[in-house]
Amino acid sequence: MKPFVKWAGGKRQILDKINEFIEDSIDKDSSFTYIEPFLGGGAVFFNRMPSKAIINDLNVDLINAYEVIKSDKYLELIDALDRHANAYNHDPDDYYYEIRSWDREEGWPDNHSAVERAARMIFLNRTCYNGLYRVNSKGQFNTPIGRYRNPTICDRENITEIHNYLSSKDNQIEIMKDSYEFAINKAGDGDVIYIDPPYDYEDDDGFTKYQMKGFTFDDFTKLKQTCDEAINRGAFVIVSNNATTKVINLFEQDPHYKIFYDINQISTLRSINCNGGKRKSGKEVIFWGMPNSIPFPQANDMDKIIKLVMSDESVLTDKQRACEVIGVNTSRQVAYYLSALLYLKYLTHDKKFTDRANAIRTNEVALKKDIYNQLKENDMFLEPYNTYKVNGKINIENIKKKIANANPKMAESTVNRRSSTIRAWVEWMYLIDKENIL
């Protein structure tokens, strides 16, 4: 099964990498919902075929096509596409611009059925310049015709397969045509969100305009805030985009170290050009945000944290080696420990040791002392630590209440995981006191 439309910015080139992050976000045997708020062609969605999913796009023509394919009218759609194909093959230019002009007619879109609109959308997508969906300020499709010898306008087998998947009673696939916020706000603890918003570019043109209103950098900033909120509810967030300076800076900027996004840059070939040989290489970036990094990471073993700080800096960008160094099994666990280094001010967002770390990382005693003092400066750790010293016990329920009060939207399971981190680090502080090395 594959996307039924071509779409600018399709993810086929980095599909394996995205899947790695999705797999690392899924707990075994968990019942999670996959959420994709900027669906587009759905390359990732169709590759994974989740049994529970919320898919969304603001493009009403695109979502109408998804809804028609899911419905019992999908055979009517196939017939309509066959008719488009026959007419196009007879006179490509005239027929293309005739169909493109439908949205210039008075009464559009009510003067055409859902099936007719879906067939038009797929036909234009398959025959326009590089499958580029673009509208003018009036919302009218304005991409010129492409130059294809024999375009596949109707892929009957693929459309039928997609229908069977979307309409299956064994699957729960919710299709939305709303803003991304509504889709992301449905995410809860353990859910996985893959976000592929319009691309940013280094020049002043900003984001590619797939809709009348476009997508500005201010929109991207609001999107990041919405992602942070979803992470705070226990969801995993994976965002892909063009690796521009301002997008990377947006996800790096967190002076309080409350949000940690694992940043990964990947070389791609995705410039739109009618001549494939002239397409230039570029870099895409994938941000992976995890729920246990707020307001402190899910990295309970302080000895592993210390071992990672004292290791060679090259380990920080090689997750396989990092797994071996600290004795964990998945890149997800490595990311948790990297977030601990970030939280303790030992790591920059581009995965280099900070000056603070370099000053003490070869001296284990100095490193332990610095971590100990940092934790004592934080009331979240100091209060249970002082109680532990007096009573020999940690009141885990009080810790949970304090975490929950700080963020009422946080899922209970996320509160439990973060309270376990406090317990582990407080116990480590007590052992440091007993060792009398400070």
Structural notes for this entry:
The structure is a single chain. The protein has helices at 15-25, 43-48, 60-70, 74-90, 92-100, 114-127, 156-167, 180-184, 217-232, 245-252, 302-309, 319-326, 331-343, 355-360, 364-376, 379-391, 396-406, 412-435; strands at residues 34-36, 52-56, 172-176, 192-195, 236-242, 261-269, 281-289. With 438 residues, it is of the alpha/beta class. It folds into three domains: 12-58 and 178-293, Vaccinia Virus protein VP39 (Rossmann fold); 67-155, Orthogonal Bundle (Adenine-specific Methyltransferase, domain 2); 302-435, no CATH class. It contains 18 helices and seven strands.
- Which spans of ≥5 residues are poorly predicted at pLDDT below 50? 206-212
Q: How large a portion of the residues is in β-strands, by DSSP E?
A: 5-15%
Distance from first to last alpha carbon: 61 Å
Order of SSEs = HEHEHHHHHEHEHEHEEHHHHHHHH
Q: Which structural class is indicated by helix and strand composition?
A: alpha/beta
Total strand segments: 7
What's the architecture of the largest domain, going by CATH? 3-Layer(aba) Sandwich
What oligomeric state do the depicted chains represent?
single chain
In total, the number of domains comes to: 3
Question: What general form does the structure show?
Answer: elongated
CATH topology group of the largest domain: Rossmann fold
**What kind of sheet is the major sheet?**
7 strands, mixed
- Calculate Rg over CA atoms: 25 Å
